[in-house]
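Contributing new records

If you add data, match the layout below exactly. Sequence lines come first and carry their own label; structure lines follow with theirs. Keep one chain per record. Anything else will be rejected by the validation script.
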Amino acid sequence: MPGDILKVDNFLNHAIDVPFILEMGREIANLYAKTNVNKILTIETSGIPIAFAAAQVMGIPMVFVKKNKSGNISDDVYSASVTSFTKKNTYDAVVSKEFLASGDRVLVIDDFLAKGNALNGLMDIIRQAGAELVGCAIAIEKGFQGGGDELRARGIRVESLAIVDSMTDTALTFRKQSM
């Protein structure tokens, strides 16, 4: 779609292809099997199914950060300002302090990685909690927007199931990854 928007609503962010999402969860669990992750953190909304699938396979809790503080969340929260590439707005991402703690070894999972804004917000929340970031797992990285490469250059482990290096209205070019 125009504006470097990749339309995946037929399997990820409108309709959910459950068998495919479960397979993504299994792959993420395999990638992070030896890291002693004890919690998965994602941000609403489209990251939730993938994070849920990985949490199920790994047998660990999953927490999702809300994009706005609602009335059912106490005032005792971690928060970070996040700018959405897709929606072109900024929001306060929040998670109740009761769900993320010092000593947690956290795997961040999200649907897309473009500029890295959401991941940077989630990593800030992890830092506020005194938890440890183990790495980030992404369904689709838009490699041409540089967010993943910038995070990797900072020493952050980023595992993307697919990296799109370029896209036009009619074609995608994927990065070859060594596995």
